[in-house]
Specification:
alpha+beta, 5-stranded antiparallel sheet, about 40% strand, elongated
Length: about 130
């Protein structure tokens, strides 16, 4: 298992992790298998989405805010980030990507993205190969 430390810089952002994850896969020399990418936090998520148009990331965050607006949940009485917890739970903490010839089998426009929903923070992302 490889642990990546990702320092987010904004309250809400999406960060392309594909180059770092691809490097882990290439270094391991895994001919064929699976790559699991997991974020060990309750207010962040891992998704696979387009990496070409940055508006996709902005649109995704905007859609999450419209679907799960901030400031109206019971947990907000504790620390004001209930919407981030709910959004992260819906998106999920991880993704699994097939590997072939020591490369991630992603589509042309796909990228492995860390979704920061309550930053800025230091995030732990775990990459496991099998």
């Amino acid at each position: 298992m490889t642990e990546l430390s990702i320092r987010t810089t904004k309250n809400r952002e999406m960060i392309d992790l594909t180059p770092r994850v691809a490097e882990v896969v290439a270094r391991a020399g895994l001919a064929e298998g699976l790559c699991s990418v997991y974020v060990a936090h309750a207010t962040a998520a891992i998704v696979i989405n387009e990496n070409d148009d940055p508006n996709v990331c902005v649109d995704t965050l905007d859609a999450l805010d419209r679907l799960i607006p901030a400031g109206q949940w019971r947990h907000d009485r504790v620390d004001g980030n209930a919407a981030s917890h709910i959004q992260a739970a819906i998106l999920g903490p991880g993704e699994t990507i097939p590997v072939r010839n020591s490369q991630l089998c992603l589509g042309r426009w796909q990228a492995v993205m860390l979704v920061e929903l309550d930053g800025p923070r230091e995030r732990r992302v775990l990459v496991t190969l099998r």
